[in-house]
Q: What sequence folds into this?
């Protein structure tokens, strides 16, 4: 549970009032709420995220819409992050995984022709091929950075100790945690949130490794930049990785030892390499 005053009712009322005015603009064919409006929490650090879809590109209509939003922002004192997209631009727009996470929670507030929701649903769908690619890629990098399948191999984090740079070693381990979080969302068949929400929403995932929150805190905590502290952090992360790699095998149907072969032949599309 987030602390602080939850201003979501004020934000939603402002969004509703603004939407009613925007619906009167003849060219508007869709209004989408996303961001804090649909997460159910807003505070003084939040803004109101709204996409307005217009039938076709028209600078006069665009300026009119921004003018309406500015009036509501001045009246309420709230920041309104409003994007105006033509229907064609919205259809062609590429979403990265963080954007897909955000829009997977979106509310289509206005859609008189029923086309906005259809487009959005297609954009945020997670395809099997995409899911396997995310799992395999993040698993491989996690192996390289902290958790080799062959325990006798040095990870990238440990290699930096041998090179005499413990700060780089701990930084590499921090990157391992990012890879682990990306992998955890993929294993739950979820899009990955933006970095600022990534840890917070990981607590709510249906599947997590055993002792997830405790081990995550141990892995994140840096007491000093010694090799001993790196080993402590590595130990926590590797306990998480053990459960995660087993889950990765179950979800993909591919043995961890074969991830590299799959990556080279099915993702990089390189053939005729002996393994």
A:
């Amino acid at each position: 549970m987030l602390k602080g005053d939850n201003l979501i009712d004020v934000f939603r009322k402002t969004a509703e009032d603004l939407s009613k005015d925007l619906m009167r603009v003849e060219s508007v064919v869709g209004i989408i709420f996303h961001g804090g409006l649909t997460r159910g929490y807003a505070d003084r650090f939040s803004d109101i995220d709204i996409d307005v879809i217009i039938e076709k590109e028209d600078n006069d209509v665009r300026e009119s819409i921004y003018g309406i939003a500015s009036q509501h922002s001045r009246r309420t004192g709230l920041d309104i992050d409003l994007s105006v997209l033509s229907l064609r631009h919205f259809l062609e727009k590429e979403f990265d995984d963080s954007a897909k996470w955000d829009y997977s929670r979106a509310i289509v507030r206005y859609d008189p022709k029923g086309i906005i929701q259809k487009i959005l649903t297609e954009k945020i769908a997670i395809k099997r091929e995409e899911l396997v690619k995310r799992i395999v890629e993040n698993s491989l990098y996690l192996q390289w950075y902290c958790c080799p399948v062959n325990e006798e191999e040095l990870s990238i984090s440990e290699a930096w100790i041998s090179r005499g740079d413990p700060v780089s070693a701990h930084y590499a381990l921090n990157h391992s945690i990012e890879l682990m979080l990306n992998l955890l969302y993929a294993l739950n068949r979820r899009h990955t949130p933006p970095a600022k929400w990534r840890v917070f929403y990981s607590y709510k995932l249906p599947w997590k490794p055993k002792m997830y929150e405790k081990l995550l805190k141990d892995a994140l905590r840096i007491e000093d930049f010694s090799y001993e502290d790196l080993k402590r952090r590595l130990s926590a992360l590797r306990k998480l990785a053990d459960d995660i790699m087993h889950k990765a095998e179950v979800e993909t149907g591919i043995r961890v030892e074969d991830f590299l072969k799959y990556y080279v032949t099915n993702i990089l599309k390189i053939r005729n390499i002996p393994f």
Notes: The chain has a mean pLDDT of 94. The beta strands are 28-34, 48-54, 80-86, 107-110.
